Amino acid sequence: MAAARSLKQGGHEVVVFEKSRGVGGRIATRRQDGFVWDTGATSFAPRGRTLESVMLSELDTSDLVTLDKAIYIHNGLRPMASDHRPAGLRYTYRSGNTKLPKLLAAETDVRLSTHIDELERAGDGFRIGGEGFDALILTAPIPQSSLLLWGIGESRPTANAKYRACISVNVGYHVELPPTKYHALLDPEQRHPLNWLSLESVKSPDRAPAGGSALGAQLGPAFSLEQYDTPDAELVDIVGSFLAQLYGPAFREPVSSSVKRWKYAQPVGYASFEEVNPEGSRLILASDALLGGRVEEAYEVGLRAANLLLAR
């Protein structure tokens, strides 16, 4: 959406094809039974990058929440304060983090639930589903974008781009969490299956019914890979056992739950944006594996992609 917004501001007509029912990729929000969970990126810490000024100065801020509680670490489910204090503020959106891509996509021609299986060259441009375009930006994870490139006999030097998987287990309860000084727990050593726990109803209002709690657990890379095909009910049971150890037996069995599997959750190896996108190309790769997996880094990649086309 960063690229689309920048190109529109530059006076170009833009069409966004999105295979899902909503824009945002891993900025995803799930609503169920009165609970609201961010199942991918649970908060934003732009750290002074371009995205921060866009969020604060150019987009509607009425739904924006500044997180005032810390991120604690856990060692075997024993929470403790971290000595590390990251610079900058951290944000979320009250109604769900998909608010950000929706704001960025305002007045853009977005085609939802549209799966692109192949590209077609048409002179100096391209065709998608019979519709002609002067240039294309591919924003899917590198393995998926590479398949589209191979379909038109093209490849780019992306061998270093690799990803890890993540299973997100989201649970809701009709009981409030005990008071905490943190809104999230992190296992920095990635030794425990519970790599990240977001206390959704602590980080933002309106994430659970009155008197309830919403939590989002993201399981570590090794555990996620090993358990990727494990049935949802078993994964919810595993997470329930962790939460019971943390917060008591009332959190053993949730009243609402959902599971989201992210095959390409985070890049762990990177390709060079400049090497992947030769000067003058009308077909640009703008994957997160070209700069970084954080939201603010993905935004920067989109701006770089747009700038390549605007400079033509």
From TrEMBL:
One Gene Ontology MF term: oxidoreductase activity
Pfam families, per database record: Amino_oxidase
Domain Amine oxidase positions: 1-59, 87-309
InterPro entries in UniProt: Amino_oxidase, FAD/NAD-bd_sf
Domain of life, per lineage: Bacteria
Membrane-spanning ranges: none
Name recorded for this polypeptide: Amine oxidase
Organism: Fimbriimonas ginsengisoli Gsoil 348
